[in-house]
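Section 3.1 - Work completed
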Amino acid sequence: MQLHFFRSAKRWDSALLPIDDNTFGLILQFRVRLVRVEPTTRFFMSDTYATGNGRLHDTYGTFHLDAWTNQEWESYKTNFVNVVQRHWSDKFVLDPDRAWYRPRMGANLTSAIIQCGLSIELVETSAQAHQTFRIIHPRENNFRSYVEMYNRTGLFTHLDLEPQWGGGRLTRVGNARHSIDFLQTTINHEFGHTLGLNHVNGVGNSDNNYGITLEQRENQMGLGGRLTTRHGRPWLNSLVDRHHIIPERRHLPEDRVKFTARVDSPQLIEYWDDDWQPTAAATH
């Protein structure tokens, strides 16, 4: 078994590092450029554009841009890193289906697990960056932030780092439909797209793509913030597609190792069922 510790790519780099005889860390490493958009900024990004007159236009309407103060901008940059890393790093473990790692010559094979980390380094130029995100400060609070996954870019607002309640969404709960309020931090949902994840019900922005049932809609790639084993797929893909682990002799059992992702972090309930009713006590 050959191990390649560092791999580079356009969307992010990755590092597979031994922690002890039974544990590795697989870290997805992002270099991110955050672009401060002012009322005088001119840019064109798909169907969204600004011509420097204090207004931003996209398919959902026209938005008025406010200026950033230096303090606001520096705080945003720091919080961006903290919020995304806190949500996505150290939340998953990749479990092997067999012993595969020999920590040193003559040692027995171990079933070493792989802990999944994520790190963000802010950079100053797009040439340095894996991802470039424009950040706007609109007066209106209904701009729909988005990521262009394959262009390695996105457009977010100053409000996207804070959890927000989305209220009154009719959602299937068992055989009934309830009005549910979901709590979600937009930047964590959008960074899921940066990681290559689609909406819980597939590609698209229709209401159904964000889920139909309560289980689907509370998902991070639905309307909520709940992580599932599916969200560990970017680490699995990096492990396999980037050949961090390369079999030497495929007839050996350890060279046929396969990994599966599991969530290794407590999950909060981040929704409120407006129509919930306590179950009537059984009578005897």
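Second construct:
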Amino acid sequence: MAGKRKRRRRLRPDDQATRLNRLKTRPTLPRRRRARHSSPYANTKEWAGIVLATVAGLVFVCIALQMHYDHRILQQRGLVTTGEIVSVSYTKGGAFAEVRFTTADGRTVQADVSNTGDATEVKVGARMEVRYDPKDPTGRVEDPNGDGSTRWMVGIGGVVLLAGAAYGTSRVA
């Protein structure tokens, strides 16, 4: 009897209505909510990541603001002179040159210039224009031809980290 099908019994119309009413009146049990995290420390880990991203974002934004402040000071009261490149070091961020120049009051100073412009040839012995702060000639020194993209990239990185932390806060809470 392998090929024989079992017939389904048809309900009479009144039995069918009774069955539907019973299904409708049956109390529904509340669904159990599954835990969102598999371990009790997962929420703590997420909050630690959010706090770390917030702190890193604030540090990047503060560094960018300090770099912008230094740039503004040099734009307002900086003096431009020509110096000689003494040493050059290359990193992923670009070239860092150490330049020796003479200030307006006759002192010979050696300072680091981090944001060298694209037009400046960065090699030892080459001449380079620098803008320096007369109050602190070794502290704030930059290439007047530099584009200043570093401070903007640091600032954008900080804002992105802060936005990520804000998104993470909305997801965890």
